[in-house]
Amino acid sequence: MKSLKLVVSYARPFIWPLVATVVAMLGLVGVQLLAPWTVRTLVASVTGGQWGPETNALVTRLALTLLAIYAARAVLSFLRSYLAHIAGWGVVADARRDIYRHLQRMSSRFYEDKQTGELMSRMVNDSDKFETLISHAIPDTLTSVFMLAGVIAVLVSMNWRLMLLTIIPVPLVLFAMQGFSRFVRPAFRTRQVELAELNASINDNLSGIREIKAFVRETIEESRISRRIDNYRDSLLRALKLMAVFGPFVEFASSLGTVVVIYFGGRLAFNQQLAIEDLVAYFLYLELFYQPVRVLGSVWENIQEALSGAERVGELLDESPDVADHEGAVDLRLPVQGDISFRDVTFRYSRGDDVLQHIDLEVPAHTMVALVGPTGVGKSTLAGLIPRFYDVCEGAITLDGQDVADVRLESLRGQVAMVLQDVFLFHGSVRDNILFGRADATESEVVEAAKVANAHDFICELPDGYDTMIGERGVKLSGGQKQRLSIARAVLKDAPILILDEATSSVDTETEWLIQQALERLMAGRTTLVIAHRLSTVRNADKIVVLKGKGILEQGTHSDLMAQGGLYRQLYEAQSRLVAPKPDEMGLF
């Protein structure tokens, strides 16, 4: 079974805690088997009809023996439980690390149709079931099996015929376990899917809480989340309903054994074919016999739930990254100059037509090349092919003559810095977010990077300066402040290749001027690819590339393109005519 093999593979590093758990379980079974025999010895002495100093001494020894048995049972129960949890939570920790490492290896294509909450559910909720399997289900199963074997051996030694009658209900339990597994695991898998979708929906809504409030969607979204909650509840109840049928059936089947012993064992005792002490011991051992049977019934639920979680984790780990280091990949030759060449590059997403076709483009080292054109022509996609967020479908991209497809991803991306329009800041301090550019930077380097990015002044005005917590996604900062922090990260990274994707859009004129100053300092001496919406910001580019449709329409300097009178000139002149009206012209005064 693939899902069970996955869990076992994670359990191998914890073989010694598991072995110690098994030893503790064997000892626990042994001391539990001694207790009924001690009572049998007492009953035999009492029914023997003789009482004296030796009998008193025997009773004392039996009481002390029981005390020692119960003390040993407590110690062994602790060891069995704690050692199993060491292994169980160790397995969960390793599985979560592997899942996260695997998710980081996946390319941008993988995340195009995935929800963050659903992936988090697989990583946290589904992997959490591994602990149930390792720490509870498997140890309880083994303990039950050992206990059954030990009790059967004792009962056979006392009266093998009565033993055969006692185990008549056991096949019913085994048959029920086999039948219910066909229905219970799919039910629990459905429950896990519903839980993942609920987590995904809640994650989306909490991330977009401002939009929900702005568009007055509270009632609608509350209804949608409520349906998700109901779906999860209903799927859980369907699974629990099956187990609710299974549990009482196991309980009933195990109770039949007591009826058998009373009927047949009572007759044997009355006919003096079975000693009274043996009958009493039989009842005590019978409880030990059917207790594991009942435990197996409840454990079966945990096993089915854990295996359904393992299946979902296995499906995720089976996903192969479409952008990865191939065998023989090498590091970039250092120092990197930054000479980039697109050679007949064609690209398409996983589903759909070509986005880019037959792109031939030279980006000389230490120059600034701007990508412009209408929305949706593939400017950001073209830039994203350089650090291999996607791999080209046809053609090749070279960096200093090396095909980037042959270069290790870590080596390649370590030489590229990016400043994006949609800035992502992490929950933490200002310093933490700047250090994201280079974790080993000194305090003076962090401050210098902030100064280059025109961010130092506003940071000093924050309540705790560089230690100010900025909230999730930098919610406490303005758009321009977030953009300057992202520039500071890029400054700190100090990579020879720089990609600016609409880095000055959606900010006011004064903030744009501050950002533009910071970017000019950042671009100095670097190969820079700029994706621009405002064409006035790229007039001084060494080369301007105009994209239209699926390819390059025209390229050249600003003056060259204006002289050609093509699409670039049309776009530039159209933007030049868009002068913001004065307040009185808008009817505000």
Please describe the structure with a list of short key phrases separated by commas or semicolons.
10 strands; single chain; ABC transporter transmembrane region fold; 19 helices; disordered C terminus; Rossmann fold; 63% helix; six-stranded mixed beta sheet; 589 residues
Topology:
Layout: H1 2-11, H2 15-47, H3 53-105, H4 108-111, H5 116-158, H6 160-166, H7 170-207, H8 209-214, H9 218-270, H10 276-317, E1 340-348, E2 354-363, E3 368-372, H11 379-384, E4 394-399, E5 402-403, H12 409-413, E6 416-420, H13 430-435, H14 443-452, H15 456-461, H16 479-493, E7 497-501, H17 509-523, E8 527-531, E9 543-548, E10 551-556, H18 558-564, H19 567-577
Parallel strand pairs: 3-8, 3-9, 6-7, 7-8
Antiparallel strand pairs: 1-2, 1-4, 4-5, 9-10
Helix pairs in contact: 1-10, 2-3, 2-5, 2-10, 3-5, 5-6, 5-7, 5-10, 7-9, 7-10, 9-10, 14-16, 16-17
